[in-house]
Amino acid sequence: MLDIKWIRENPEKLDEALARRGAAPAAADLIRLDEARREHLKRLQELQNRRNEASREIGKAKATKDETLAERLIAEIAEIKAEIQDGEETERRLDGSLEDALARIPNLPLDDVPVGKDEADNVEMRRVGERPDFAFKPREHYELGEAMGLMDFDQAAKISGSRFTILKGALARLERALGQFMLDLHTTEHGYQEVAAPLLVRDEALFGTNQLPKFAEDLFHTTEGRWLIPTAEVPLTNLARERIIDAADLPMRVTALTPCFRSEAGSAGRDTRGMLRQHQFYKVEMVSITASDASLDEHERMTKAAEEVLKRLGLAYRVVTLCTGDMGFGARKTYDIEVWLPGQGAYREISSCSVCGDFQARRMSARYRAEGEKATQFVHTLNGSGVAVGRALIAVMENYQNEDGSITIPPVLRPYMAGVERIGGPA
């Protein structure tokens, strides 16, 4: 969340930044809540001071045998104690109101983020790779998968409902191969440490990575009060939770291959065919925890690590900078990587890499201390897909399809496929 002290000192800057995001001004309301809280704290301090003073006066009254004054002071202290107890409850309420209001304010975009309303205003930075030129009309992934008998949406719907997929045989192995390839690349060449992370998390973890309280409807909640992770960003980023990290140990770079679970609230009618938008999918996530002066360089590095996955797979893609209106709630700047899907004839998102500054660190109380310094600072956090495994499967199927319905396996994946070079097609 944002720093209320900074907001008090820069109300115009806050409202200007929110306007760039298309959000309503909030500085006046936040300052009003903070002033009410500060005024109440001042009153509590005055009461505590008077209680201490009255206690000293009791001693003096008893020393001079002025029992009437002593009894009056004792009664006054009892009244002050009751008022302080009531005031402490009011303090908790005022603290909660301010914290809740701050928790619902999005992060502020960096100055170089393009201003816009939605994805139409995103700015393309570069295109990489050659799009395949087919001598036939390319099919979409679900047409290829169903024709092979290795992708089953109907049976998945009978078991779990819509937006689930069953993969079988070579396609199931190909999805697994993609995840393993990505993990190996990031851990052996990009400096990330693999983590086996929990899939169920507490409220506090989701608050730390800003999914709660604003986006509860996008999540799956268990009957025991835990939540299924929407992305491994949640447990990986919370590795820094309530810690003071030595600056010498930064940056922390961690990665995990996990299933992800999303309710897809509000996406009715979007990508209803195939496995582009699922309630359950696999993703390799990258998270970096850095010092405050290193996060922007780390953002570029992380994006290049995600791009390298697509380069090794031989997939054409483009990188876009998200505009202020399309950027995620906790991000200060986001690059989306969109892979070319011949079946759709369009670029579709396969990775999103964001720098969050200290926004999440404040929610998690995640700090670092520079060598020789007593004071601590909030860390900066970054997260990115490295990449979405299901969408990578879709991209490989559509880009490496052959006219007979078979799929050529990209060379980099063949060691993970026991040397198989092609799947599907005529028996």
Assign the CATH topology of the largest domain.
BirA Bifunctional Protein, domain 2
Strand content: 15-25%
| Tertiary shape | elongated
Termini separation (Å)?
A: 58 Å
Mean pLDDT: 95
Q: What's the gyration radius in Å?
A: 28 Å
How many structural units, i.e. domains? 2
Number of helices: 12
- Please count the beta strands (DSSP E, at least 2 residues each): 18
* Major sheet strand order: 1-11-12-13-16-10-9-4
What is the element string, with H for helices and E for strands? HHHHEHEHEHEEHEEHEEEHEEEHEEEHEE
CATH architecture of the largest domain: 2-Layer Sandwich
Which structural class is indicated by helix and strand composition?
alpha+beta
Pick out the low-confidence regions.
Answer: none
CATH superfamily name of the largest domain?
Bira Bifunctional Protein, Domain 2
Main sheet, how many strands, which sense, barrel?
8 strands, mixed
Provide keyphrases for this structure.
2 domains, Helix Hairpins, single chain, BirA Bifunctional Protein, domain 2, ATP binding, coiled coil, 427 residues, 8-stranded mixed β-sheet, protein biosynthesis, ATP-binding, alpha+beta, 3-stranded antiparallel β-sheet
Question: What does this molecule look like?
Answer:
The mean pLDDT is 95. The relative contact order is 0.14. The chain has twelve helices and 18 strands. The protein folds into two domains: 4-104, Helix Hairpins, CATH 1.10.287; 119-423, Bira Bifunctional Protein, Domain 2 (BirA Bifunctional Protein, domain 2, 2-Layer Sandwich), CATH 3.30.930. The chain is an alpha+beta fold. Strand 12 (333-341) and strand 13 (346-355) form a beta hairpin. The strands form five sheets. It has an eight-stranded mixed β-sheet. The chain has a three-stranded antiparallel β-sheet with strand order 5-7-6. It has a three-stranded mixed β-sheet with strand order 8-14-15, with no helix packed on it. The protein has helices spanning 4-9, 11-20, 27-63, 67-103, 141-148, 153-160, 169-188, 203-208, 233-237, 295-313, 359-364, 389-399; strands at 123-128, 151-152, 166-167, 193-194, 200-201, 220-221, 227-228, 244-246, 252-261, 280-290, 317-321, 333-341, 346-355, 367-369, 377-378, 380-388, 407-408, 422-423. Its EC number is 6.1.1.11. Residues 30-90 form a coiled coil. Homodimer. The tRNA molecule binds across the dimer.
